[in-house]
Amino acid sequence: MSQTTLYARVSTADQTAAHQKTQAEAAGFTIDRVIADEGVSGVSVPFAERPQARRVFDCLRRGDVLVVRWVDRLGRDYDDVTATIRALMAQGVVVQTIINGFTFDGATNDPVQKAVRDSLIAFMAATAQAQAEATKAAQRAGIDHAKSGPDAGTKYRGKRPSFDRATFETVRQMLEAPTVNVSEIARATGLSRQTVLRIKGDPVAAEAALGRWGI
Asked: How high is the pLDDT of residue 13?
C-alpha cells in the first residue's frame, strides 16, 4: 500500500515541520509520515548533504507520494532541485507540491508528456533559485539600510513585524494557491488573520517593514 510522506526543511525557529504539515493538510493531503531536517539552510546545504535526505530515499517505495511545500525544499539551486526530482521519479516516487499543486510523476512513457513535465521541472527549479537569490539580496539591502547613517540606531522604523522573511514568503506563496484561505494560512504559519490580511492587502509594505528592521 502506498504512503504519503511530507519532507519538511526548516531553517529558523519561526519555521516548524508542524506548520508545514498543517499547510499540507489544509491543501487536502493526508500525511502518513513526516521527515524533517531542522535548522538546515536551503541556500547553502545541498539536498544530499542534509541529515534526513538519505532517509527520504531509503523510506520511499515505488508508488509512494512525497509532498513538499514547494520545489525549493528539494535543493539549494537549479541543478540540485532538478537532480533530486529526477532521482525520486526514477525510484518510482510521485512528487507533489503544496503551493501551486504541481505533480511530478516519472511513470509516463509518452514523449510529449515527458517533455512538458521536464520543462516544468526546469522552470520551477529556475524559479526557486531566482527567488532564493532575490531573498538574499533583499535581506542584504535591508540590513545595509538599517545600518546606514548616523541615526540608524534611533531612526523610527515602526512596529517590528510579527513575522520573519521566511514566514512572509510562505504567506505570499500560499496566497497564490486558490484552494487555501486566509484562516488556513494563519493556522499554518502561526500568524493572526489580521496579519495575513495585511500582507495580502499590501505585500510591498510588509516586505518594506522587514527591510527597515533588517530582517
From this structure: 52
- Selected catalytic residue, list 11, 119, 162, 192: 11
Do 40 and 72 lie in a common domain? yes
Report pLDDT digits (tens) over 36-60.
988 766 667 888 888 898 899 999 9
Joined grid coordinates for residue 14: 519561526
CATH classification at residue 92? 3.40.50.1390
pTM above 0.90, yes or no: no
Active site residue 11: yes
Q: Which of 25-39, 67-81, 124-138, 180-194 has the lowest mean pLDDT?
A: 124-138
Q: Is residue 27 part of a domain?
A: yes
Which residue, 16, 80, 71, is CA-closest to 48?
A: 80
